[in-house]
Design brief:
Order of helices and strands: HHHHHHHHHHHHHHHH
Largest sheet: none
Oligomer: single chain
Shape: globular
Structural class: mainly alpha
Radius of gyration: 21 Å
């Protein structure tokens, strides 16, 4: 699986350096992270083929937790075993955790988060270009037939109409599995029915031990629960945190919660580092550590448990058909996110020009990380 690259003699070091870099510059949310990771591990380093990369993307969409972090963990495990699994995840998360903790310290001390409008204005058009480039490359691999194209369009339409993304993913897989069985004259699998029920069962908020009075144990359990059951976007994360921390426990105000989510959005790395900010606000560095460990720990467990199953899934024709459909549906979801982001970002000539320049440079094989940093610099200059 691993290709003979310059750093092959030290795969763990390669993994650490790559994901520290990505964790430092990976602005823009999971879709953008996916594009940057694909650029590094498939196109530049050849650690995975596009087919293998797509399988990992599909697998992360079928388990709870932060998809881009789980993708990093999967790749670390492929590249350097169990140690790589841990190192990749920690290195991808750590830069954001440190940045968010610094912002949380300033928030607690001064009561406000420094503005980052200019930075975002420069980063977001570049992020759109990175996602479009990844969609183009991955789509050529995943969309193997007119039927899969039709499935991608149907998935995108359902997403735009507001159908829950987990239902879309499992529905696409179950439908394709049924078609696969019918083409071979096999009876429909009972898997379809069970898959239809699984999202509802896992997505339901569970009770957490604790009371209204602040407790570090309750803090940890709240974020452990969120990390263990949360599928979906940052808006779903917001809903879970609001229900637990604002409505049920009363530990945060609405304003504090929105500020926490905003910090997660303007810093690189996974949006789940919102937990770091909230933990720091509630209980200083100890709270930040507990909340961070709580929300990310399930991702490591889920990847460690599911990674050994992927080769068996791909070797089974029915399971491979299911995974093919999930991969296509994942790309369709990514395309819808890009379209929604583009409607809000590409509203004038400067961001359109910045996105177009980034696309040209990406085609010329310029590293996406440097383009994101360049976009941030342009945004800061124009915003001053």
């Amino acid at each position: 699986m691993d290709s003979p690259t310059a750093g092959a003699r030290s795969p763990l070091r390669d993994v650490a350096l790559l994901f520290l870099k990505l964790g430092t510059v990976a602005f823009g949310g999971p879709a953008a992270h996916l594009g940057m990771i694909e650029d590094e591990v498939v196109r530049r380093r050849g650690w995975l083929t596009r087919e293998e990369f797509l399988d990992l993307v599909g697998a992360t969409n079928l388990i709870p937790g932060p998809n881009s972090t789980e993708l990093a963990i999967h790749i670390g495990a492929r590249r350097a075993g169990t140690a790589g699994l841990i190192v990749a995840g920690v290195c991808f998360i750590l830069p954001a955790v440190l940045m968010v903790s610094a912002l949380a310290w300033g928030y607690v001390r001064y009561g406000a988060v420094p503005a980052a409008q200019g930075l975002l204005a420069g980063v977001q058009p570049v992020v759109i270009a990175v996602i479009l480039q990844a969609l183009w490359r991955l789509g050529r691999t995943a969309l193997k037939s007119p039927q899969l194209w039709a499935l991608a369009v149907a998935t995108a339409v359902m997403t735009i109409l507001g159908v829950n993304e987990l239902i879309v993913l499992f529905g696409a897989g179950a439908l394709w599995l049924g078609l696969h069985a019918s083409r071979r004259g096999l009876p429909p699998s009972g898997l379809s029915a069970s898959l239809a029920l699984w999202p509802a069962a896992l997505g339901a908020p569970a009770a957490v031990v604790g009371g209204v009075a602040f407790s570090t144990t309750t803090l940890f359990l709240v974020f452990l629960k969120v990390g263990a059951v949360l599928f979906g976007s940052g808006y779903v994360l917001l809903a879970f945190l609001r229900a637990d921390l604002v409505d049920r426990l009363g530990w945060l105000s609405e304003t504090q919660l929105l500020d926490a989510v905003a910090v997660g959005q303007v810093t690189p790395g996974p949006l789940f580092t919102t937990a770091t900010f909230i933990g720091y606000v509630l209980n200083g560095p100890t709270g930040a550590v507990l909340a961070t460990v709580g929300i990310f720990l399930p991702a490591f467990v889920f990847v460690a448990a599911s990674a050994p199953l992927l080769p068996r899934v791909r070797a089974s024709p029915p399971a491979a058909a299911f995974l093919d459909a999930v991969n296509v549906a994942s790309l369709a979801l990514m395309a819808v996110v890009t379209w929604q982001l583009g409607r809000h970002v590409l509203t004038s000539v400067p961001p359109v020009a910045l996105a177009a320049i980034a696309l040209v440079l990406l085609r010329a094989r310029v590293n996406a990380a440097w383009l994101v940093l360049g976009g941030a610099a342009v945004g800061l200059v124009l915003g001053t």
